[in-house]
Amino acid sequence: MSCPFQSDHNHNTDNGLKPGQVSYDDYLKISEIIKYQIPLSEKIGNNLVHDEYLFITIHQTYELWFKLIIIEIDSVRELLSQPILDEGNNLLIVSRLGRIVKIQKILVEQLGILETMTSHDFDKFRRYLSPASGFQSWQFRLIENKLGIPKERRIRHNNTDYSEAEGFSSKARESIKISEREPNLLGLIDSWLCRTPGLEPDGFDFTGKLRDAVDMWLKDLEANANDEESVETKEVLMSEIESKRENFNNLFDEEKQNKLKIKGDRRLSFKAFQGALFIFFFRDEPRFNQPYQIISLLVDIDSLFIKWRYNHAILVQRMIGGRLGTGGSSGYQYLLATASDRYKVFLDLFNLSSYIIPQTFMPKLDSSMKKRLSVFKLQVTSDGAEENSNNDETVN
After folding, report:
1. N or C: which end of the chain has fewer CB within 10 A?
2. What is the DSSP letter of 285?
3. Of all helices (H) and strands (E), which one includes residue 180?
């Protein structure tokens, strides 16, 4: 049996290995990798700046992590794209999204290493970098597109479409264009949430039951407010109740939610958000436990990218103040603008907690729904139909 790690460098006989064996150096291409930290301060300026090694190493490391994040996102997209969704894959999705979160935490921490470089030391070699810019990281643009940041939400860079900015090779530009057309994670998650069991109007009808529960809760609040002797207190309470009522009326208004989605103020479809809310409320049910973890990890991914963007903006302000970026952008101001809700992919999932109601008023699961949520090994087809994978009685 041949070695699975057989190297193309078997001709190298000075490492003491037998033919067909691979060394650590050959397998990881260490000798090649470490050749490519080439400071421009030495090559162009003929005056090596020590901290440029740090700058290059950090950014090359970022690109390696970006590559791995892309691999993990693509694997999750592949799982969610299957015509029949095996819920047994939920754990795999949780694992891979969790890996992305762990990588992101490292990305944030790496900025702390860059902070060991002073602005004076950065200025010594910065002039050699222009027009190279982090904006030209095509792998980061792929990550954004594969997650689902819509093109119309992007802040224009020097009044130019982001994909047309200078610095991208033709191959990178084509990869970006392809990623715009492919199904993104947001869209796949939307379809997955739409298939949440229990949303059927002619079945359990979670949305209808939640609407009834909210009405009961608000009526109870009104009754308590009417018992108040103080006119001022009563007015305050009634104003708060009216605000809650409007909040929930918006939640149940599908036409209004669809208009908000078209405007870009919502990311998920009406039905998908109802599915997310159902999972959020009943996360302790066996069948909803892992979907809830998926929802939480998607929020983590969004949060950590925003945190990375913000910390990056602060680092840039510290290093160059209000000066323009090497790529011609406004530098700190541009980066700070990207650390906002407009760059959150799963913004709606952050807002699930806006609709928490007291546990005593929560909709109750009937015996049929309780049974459906206690069954884990089901396959859900693309149209939402359920197929029992263990030949047990199909749960409808």
Report:
1. N
2. S
3. helix 170-181
Q: Tell me the two tokens of residue 90.
A: 């939920």
Are the C-beta atoms of 121 and 49 separated by less than 8 Å? yes
Helix axes 90-114, 286-320, angle to 10 degrees: 20
Amino acid, single-letter form, for residue 174: E
Tens-place pLDDT, residues 249-267: 999 999 999 999 888 889 9
Residue 325 to residues 18, 133, 221, 331: CA-CA distances in angstroms?
Answer: 52, 7, 54, 4
Residues with Cβ within 8 Å of 318's Cβ and at least 6 positions away in sequence, in order, are 115, 119
> What length is written for the chain?
396
In contact, 274 and 363? CB cutoff 8 Å: no
pTM of the predicted protein model: 0.88
Interior angle at CA 341, CA 336 and CA 344, nearest 5:
105
Per-residue HEC secondary structure of 216-256 comes to HHHHHHHHHHHCCCCHHHHHHHHHHHHHHHHHHHHHHCHHH
**Long-range contacts, stretch 87-96, CB < 8 angstroms, 24+ apart:** 87/287, 87/290, 87/376, 87/377, 87/378, 87/379, 87/380, 88/376, 88/377, 88/389, 90/290, 90/291, 90/294, 91/290, 93/290, 93/294, 94/290, 94/293, 94/294, 94/297, 96/72
Closest CA to 29 of 10, 9, 6: 9
pLDDT tens digits, residue range 230-250? 999 999 999 999 999 999 999
